[in-house]
Amino acid sequence: MGDPLFWHRLQFAFTIIFHYLFPQLTMGLALLIVWLKWRGLKTGEARYDDAARFWIRIFGINFAVGVVTGVPMEFQFGTNWARFSDYSGGVIGQTLGMEGMFAFFLESSFLGLLIWGEKRLGPKRHFYAALALWFGSWLSGYFITATNAFMQNPVGYTVGAKGTIQLASFWGFVLNPWALAQYAHNMMAAVVTASFVMAALGAYWTLKGLHEATARLNLRTGIVAGFAFSILVAFPTGDQQGKLVARHQPAALAAMEGRFESGPRAELNLIGQPNVAARRLDNPVRIPGVLSFIAYGSFSKNVTGLNDIPMDQWPTAIELLYYAFHIMVGLGTLFIALMAAGLLLLWKGRLFTARPMLWALMLAFPFPYIATSAGWMTAELGRQPWLIYGLMRTADGSSATVHTGSAAFTLIGFTGIYFVLGLLFLFLVGREIAHGPAPMKGKEVAHG
């Protein structure tokens, strides 16, 4: 526990997991807000604009807390990971800078127009502002994902005279195949989170007998989008991501499945406990051949086990990686089942009176957050022991002059500050939920 590297990694893990609770909702809501604004523009029905107005306010609160919790991430590249920044800044500085200069300012500017400019802009221009907000938030997501994808699968770089890496091909770096697959998977998951939150609030208002029109619209939108995007998270985006892991990070794939022996017709392990000391998976429940098919598209393909990979290439937390992966996949499967049941009840016209389903939808909203956190843990733990896969080990990237006490002290500080921010966030969101959707004040609206 006295190793500074442990505390650097723990601090970064804590701050980034807490931070990502907020951007995932804003990125998902951005798309759903566009849908609501478009339907309001096409139909002229006030319920769509009332719902969009409510979710724009929730977006604003999330965005503000996301910005506050995101700033320390940039600083930690210098304070905790100075050697990594010195080595790779010539490459990853491109996308990090573009995210801040372009996407963030685009997103924040149009958020202001959405919150305070509806009367002045009019329906059409307000819709265009929603489109710009969606574009900015998703562009921001891509720049960050491309940065992480380089760490997973480094491309488009060259080694400079001082031994640091520099950008050799901007488009090769930005259009990294890993970035494209990871981005698609991540954004589909963000919409799932927003859909579950929207459906949960609709269920809550329905159970309470409040805001009937908006509650039903939230339920309908949340369930339809939740079902569609839960499937997209699994296939094709999740499937493509899995194939990239199999091709480029075989040790990660083996650890994710608790696979120690190599061979064809590799089993997919549904349940089991990895026993690293004995090099086996205890109490497994398996489906023969499925892992080979998922990884390589053929049941007869060989899947490498950890026993055939040097131990210094193994992920450093195999047990945690295994459980994080299976939590992600298990919850993703349950999401499809839950939303399919809700969609069936909606189709039969029984959803709004089916109290058990309404309770299930209301209580389910935390689980996409758990699934996305487990998914990011899977990606980051799977890359270990590399900070940049094949180029720089994690042990070589931390700040050499920042000792254990400093890292532990700042982690305690972050924990306290984020606890207060979390309470403030819950208070503000709870107040908005208590107020509910509200029509726009004033009767005169400019026409765009």
**How many domain units?**
1
Largest sheet: 2 strands, antiparallel
User: So how many helices?
Assistant: 14
Percent helix: over 70%
pLDDT averaged over residues: 93
Q: Please tally the β strands and state the result.
A: 6
Low-confidence stretches: 443-448
C-alpha end-to-end distance: 61 Å
Q: Note the overall shape.
A: globular
Helix/strand structural class:
mainly alpha
Rg, rounded, reads 23 Å
- Order the strands across the largest sheet as they lie in space: 1-2
Order of helices and strands: HHHHHEEHHHHEEHHHHEEH
Describe this protein with a few key phrases.
448 residues; mainly alpha; two-stranded antiparallel sheet; 6 strands; 71% helix; globular; disordered C terminus
Which helices and strands occur, and which strands form pairs?
Elements (H helix, E strand, L loop, with lengths): L3 H17 L2 H21 L2 H34 L2 H35 L1 H35 L4 E3 L5 E3 L2 H5 L2 H32 L3 H37 L1 H7 L11 E8 L4 E8 L2 H7 L21 H30 L7 H9 L2 H18 L2 E3 L3 E2 L10 H32 L13
Antiparallel strand pairs: 1-2, 3-4, 5-6
Short description:
The protein has 448 residues and is mainly α. It is 71% helix and 6% strand.
Can you tell me about this structure?
With 448 residues, the chain is mainly alpha-helical. It has one domain (4-262, 304-433). Helices cover 71% and strands 6% of the residues. The protein contains 14 helices and 6 strands. The chain has helices at 4-20, 23-43, 46-79, 82-116, 118-152, 170-174, 177-208, 212-248, 250-256, 290-296, 318-347, 355-363, 366-383, 404-435; strands spanning 157-159, 165-167, 268-275, 280-287, 386-388, 392-393. It has a two-stranded antiparallel sheet. A hairpin with a 4-residue loop joins β3 (268-275) and β4. α5 crosses α7.
